[in-house]
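Listing 4. Sequential folding, example run.
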Amino acid sequence: MQVIGLCRFSYPAIGGFQTMHESVEARRRYLYDPRRLDERFRLFETCALPALRAQTDPRFQFLIVTGTCLPRVARDRLNDLTSGMKQVQIVSQEPGRHRSVMKDVLNRARLNPDLPCLQFRHDDDDAIAVDFVELLRRAVQDAEGLVRRNKMVAIDFNHGFLARFDASGIQVTPVHRSLLGVGFGMYVRGGCELTIMNFAHHKIGNFMPVISQNEPPMWVRTLNGFNDSPNTRTSKAKLEPLTPALAKQFETRFAIDPAVVRRVYSDA
C-alpha cells in the first residue's frame, strides 16, 4: 500500500495557520524572517529528518510543500539537507487556500487513485519514531475489518515527548496526547479523494473511526519560539534534561543525537 507523508515547510497558505496575518505578503514576511527560518532549519535538521532517514520501512514518499517565493538561500539549504533522501519530493506551490492546495498535492502523488493508500502529516519541527511507517502499515492490517467497512480510518499514536532543543541539549517530558497531529496517519480507500489534510486533526474523530495506540512512544513535539499554536508556544510544561536512559531512547527511537543538537545550536 502506498504511504505518503506531507510536510508544509513555511508555505504561505491562505488559512491553515493559528497565527493570523492580514495578507499573504504579511504572512511571507513572518515566515521568511531570517530568525524564524534559521530556527526551523535547525529543528528540521536535528529533529525531523533523522528518523525519516532511518525508517525501518523505507517504502514511503515524503512531500515537502514550499512556496514558489521561498528565498533562494532557504531553498538551497532545504535541497542540501534532503539530498540523497529518495523518498523526498519538494513541491513548490503558489499561495492558495490551505486545504484545497494540500488536498491537490496529496492526490497528485497517488500512483493509482483507485487503490487505497496511507497518508500522514508531519511538521518540520517534530519527529516521528523510526518505525512509524512500519507500525502505520501494521495498524491497518490489524484492523482489517474496520478498514473494510470504512472509506477512511485515522490512526493515532498518542504517546510521545514534549521537548525543547538548545545549545545545552534536549529537555523533555513524556506525555500522552490524543489527536495531536504528530505520529498521526489515515487510511484512504481507493476512489476516495478526501485526504488527511481535509480535516482538523483534533476533530477527525467526528468524521471517521480512530485507531488509538498508546505504546510505544512514537513522536517528539518541540516547544519553540515559532510554534504556530499559541498554547504550544507558551506551554508551561515542566521539562527535564535527558537522562542517560532517555538519551539512548532518543537515539534508538527517533535517531536524534543530543551531541548533534548541542553542536548545531552552538554553531547558530
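-- end of first protein; second protein begins --
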Amino acid sequence: MAGRWGRTGRWTLALGLGTLWWWAVLRLAFAPGSGVLEGAVAAGGWGLSLLPVHCVSKARAAGATGSDQWMRRFREAWRRRRGPRLGPTSGA
C-alpha cells in the first residue's frame, strides 16, 4: 500500500510543479506586472529539464559509447548501407 501512495505522491508533485512552471511562463508572456519571481521559476524549471542529460558521466552511463566507438559504428553502418566495395575489374 505504501508503494501506491508513493506513486500517487510523485505524480501529484510533478503535476503541481508543472502547473507552477506553466503559470510562471504564461505570466511572463502575457502579464505586464511579471518580474523576477516568475523569471526565476521559469528559468529554474527549464534548467531542471536539462539536468538528466548531465547526471551521469559518459564513462559510467549504460549503453554510452566513446567517440572512437561512435566513429567505428558509423563506418560499419555506412559500409552495410553501401554494400561490398568492388575493386577495379580486369579484362575486357
